[in-house]
Design a protein that fits this description.
The chain is an alpha/beta fold and about 300 residues long. The chain contains 12 helices and 12 strands. The protein binds NADP nicotinamide-adenine-dinucleotide phosphate (NAP).
Length: about 300
């Protein structure tokens, strides 16, 4: 398992993160097996959000199933998010403070290693975010901060007031949902959908500013519409390429789908959503694979992206 020294923080963590968005209906024992398998595979970072599983539902399931001792707690990096409410987004100071206290209680911990603003709030007042972050940081409740699904301009607006570094941006990225990479490859091509920059250059901005990108839904075709793995009806070429490259590296296609993201020199983290311990192990194996340029571009084009 590859580990990364995460820029702008004092954290070192695995480049694979286990996301816990889907654990709400699992038994305590199954949660312990899933998390234990992740730990045994070298995964040290775990991703939550206030909104997962209903209000703090998945955090609560994790907290009560794991009952982390202080030494267990110190060995992992716990990340959670704030800002999505029922039907609207809320980056107000009072909501951020209240939600973090609820996350701490649900997770049964004294501190959160990383807090992300979940989705851009149209009504954001960066002064309020800054005040909330400073209060949380001074109280030792949150060590590091970041955002999710934000554009460079939105990050810059926050940075005008927020004192702490915004060290992370969690964004949707898989081989098939790869516009943030693919747009740059086809820059300035007329009448080509791939050429449209949908995030105002978040990839280059993040590399230039040492922001760690975290790839969510790494196996989903698009927005929660199933995985491309084994979808031969829509992704026959991609699955053929995944099979061949997996065989060449002695891992599974799941591992290669992870390796496609970790091969990018931006030093991204991959946030898994599987609840299946076997798939966690297959994914973790992908962290140790370094794809050649030819393999990486073959997967890119097999997924339907153009290399002009
Ligand atoms: N920041 C954001 O806005 C945002 C949005 C969404 C998610 N996230 C984070 O990202 C994490 C991952 O998201 P995700 O769950 O959508 O991503 P994912 O890992 O791409 O998808 C996992 C889902 O696909 C299923 N699946 C079916 N076949 C699979 C296969 N061969 N390999 C792997 N999975 C397969 C899994 O089922 P099994 O459980 O049966 O394996 C699971 O339901 C979440 O847990 C959450 O932490 C963040």
């Amino acid at each position: 398992m590859k580990t990364l020294e995460l820029p702008q923080t004092d954290l070192t963590a695995s480049d694979i993160v286990l996301g816990l968005m889907r654990i709400n209906d699992m038994s305590d024992e199954d949660i312990r097996t899933l998390v234990g398998t992740a730990r045994d595979s070298g995964i040290t970072m775990f991703d939550h959000a206030a909104v997962y599983g209903g209000w703090h539902g998945c955090e609560q399931r994790f907290g009560s199933a794991m009952g982390l001792s202080s030494s267990d707690r110190a060995e992992i990096v716990l990340q959670t998010k704030v800002g999505i409410r029922q039907g609207f987004f809320d980056f107000s100071e009072s909501h951020i403070l209240e939600s973090v206290d609820e996350s701490l209680a649900a997770l049964q911990t004294d501190y959160i290693d990383v807090l992300l603003l979940h989705r851009p709030d149209a009504l954001v007042e960066p002064e309020e975010v800054a005040s909330a972050f400073s209060t949380l940081h001074a109280a030792g409740k949150v060590k590091h901060f970041g955002v999710s699904n934000h554009t460079p301009g939105q990050v810059e607006l926050l940075k005008k007031h927020v004192e702490q570094p915004l060290a992370f941006n969690q964004v949707q990225l898989s081989i098939t949902h790869a516009n943030l990479i693919a747009a740059g490859v086809a820059a300035n091509m007329g009448a080509l959908d791939q050429s449209i920059d949908r995030d105002n250059g978040i990839l280059d901005y993040s590399r230039l500013n040492d922001v760690t990108l975290q790839a969510w839904s790494p196996f989903q075709k698009g927005f929660f519409d199933g995985v491309f793995l084994d979808d031969r009806e829509n992704y026959a070429d991609l699955n053929d390429a995944l099979d061949e490259i997996a065989a060449a590296h002695g891992v599974t296609p799941t591992g290669i789908a992870v390796a496609w993201i970790t091969r990018h020199p931006a030093q991204m983290q991959v946030v898994l959503g599987t609840t299946n311990p076997g798939r966690v192990q297959e994914s973790a194996a992908g962290s140790d694979v370094r794809l050649s340029r030819e393999e990486w571009y073959r997967l890119f084009t097999a997924a339907g992206h153009l290399v002009p």
